[in-house]
Amino acid sequence: MKIAFKAWNVLIILWDVILILNALKGGTVAVAIAVLLASFSLIMAYAGLKEDYYLCKKLASVVLVLNAVSLVTSGFAAGAIFSLIIAAIYMFMCVSLDTKY
After folding, report:
1. Kind and range of the H or E element at 24?
2. The pTM is what?
3. CB-based contacts of 43: which residues, under 8 Å, 6+ apart?
4. 58-83: per-residue pLDDT in tens?
5. CB of 45 within 8 A of CB of 26?
6. Cα torsion through 48, 69, 88, 51, rounded to 10
7. Least C-beta-crowded within 10 Å: which of 41, 53, 56, 87?
């Protein structure tokens, strides 16, 4: 499970880089929202790579709420749905790893 969690952190980092690059094509509001969301996700993924599950749980809950808001404001776009699914699975993995170790 730890290896899958670390791989999931790498997936989140890659997804955030893609999100920021796509946001650069939009306006300043899109860039600001993408950078805000990506900064929380990047810090969360970094904490996950360091196996700080407590911080991961806290940041994952913030990211999950931000992704839900992004989902509604984007009109249920495919990227927002994918981000929400990634965050939900991450939250599940973080909670299960924190209770085991």
Report:
1. none
2. 0.81
3. 59
4. 999 998 998 888 888 878 888 788 88
5. no
6. 10
7. 53
